[in-house]
């Protein structure tokens, strides 16, 4: 129970969740097994053989469980990264394809609560939260925090960004559809505005 106390605390707290970094506390289980083995070997107790076998079986089982979990984490991270790169590449193409676009124009990205309905729903991975991806691609935490980083680091697109607050209350922007619909990217006051 001590090894997994952080998981228990998180599950009892509203709006909290267990993410991958918390699960590394499980390494203490292996420390316990090593200590138990040393204790048995030093004391040469009569139950040494049976306890050793049970400990070895338990430790092997935990290793297999952690290998399975690690593979699931890496698979989800790989899928999310590839999907993100693909989506950001398409977004960059759409931005650069806007009529009268110039590469010295600043870009303003306005985030909304709506998401692209054509995205693949990877709900099978919802039990794993990976930093910095968030729960899913349409997770507001993931979009808000990492969008510009994804565009610049993974896709090599680093224009000057303008704060969205100066555009989001404009009537023209409010009437714009949400990306990827046609008209969701416009040039307003010599700035490329993306309603995402």
Strand order of the largest sheet: 1-3-2
Shape: elongated
Instruction: Work out the radius of gyration.
Output: 25 Å
The structure class reads mainly alpha
How many structural domains?
Answer: 1
Question: What proportion of the residues form beta strands (DSSP E)?
Answer: 5-15%
The SSE order reads HHHEHHHEE
Main sheet overview: 3 strands, mixed
The stretches of 5 or more residues where confidence is low (pLDDT under 50) are: none
> So how many helices?
6
- Helix content range of the residues, please? 40-55%
Could you report the average pLDDT, rounded to the nearest whole number? 76
What is the distance, rounded to the nearest whole angstrom, between the alpha carbons of the first and last residues? Answer: 44 Å
Extended strand count: 3
Structure, described:
With 196 residues, the protein is mainly alpha-helical. The chain has one domain. Helix content is 49%, strand content 7%. The protein contains six helices and three strands. A three-stranded mixed β-sheet has the order 1-3-2. Strand 2 and strand 3 form a beta hairpin. Helix 2 runs antiparallel to helix 3 and helix 3 packs across helix 4. The longest helix is centred in the middle third of the chain and has 49 residues. The protein is elongated. The mean pLDDT is 76.
């Amino acid at each position: 129970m001590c090894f997994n106390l952080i998981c228990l605390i998180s599950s009892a707290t509203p709006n909290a969740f267990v993410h991958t970094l918390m699960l590394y506390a499980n390494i203490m289980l292996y420390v316990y097994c090593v200590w138990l083995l040393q204790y048995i070997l030093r004391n040469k107790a009569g139950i040494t053989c049976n306890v050793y076998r049970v400990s070895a079986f338990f430790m092997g089982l935990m290793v297999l469980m952690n290998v399975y979990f690690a593979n699931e984490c890496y698979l989800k991270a790989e899928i999310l990264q590839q999907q993100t790169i693909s989506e950001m590449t398409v977004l960059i193409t759409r931005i650069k394809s806007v009529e009268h676009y110039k590469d010295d124009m600043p870009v303003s990205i306005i985030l909304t609560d709506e998401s692209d309905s054509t995205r693949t729903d990877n709900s099978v991975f919802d039990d794993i939260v990976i930093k910095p991806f968030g729960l899913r691609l349409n997770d507001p935490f993931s979009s808000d925090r990492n969008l510009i980083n994804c565009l610049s680091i993974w896709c090599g697109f680093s224009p000057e960004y303008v704060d969205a607050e100066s555009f989001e209350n404009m009537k023209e922007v409010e009437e714009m559809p949400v990306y990827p619909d046609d008209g969701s990217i416009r040039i307003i006051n010599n700035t490329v505005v993306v309603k995402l």
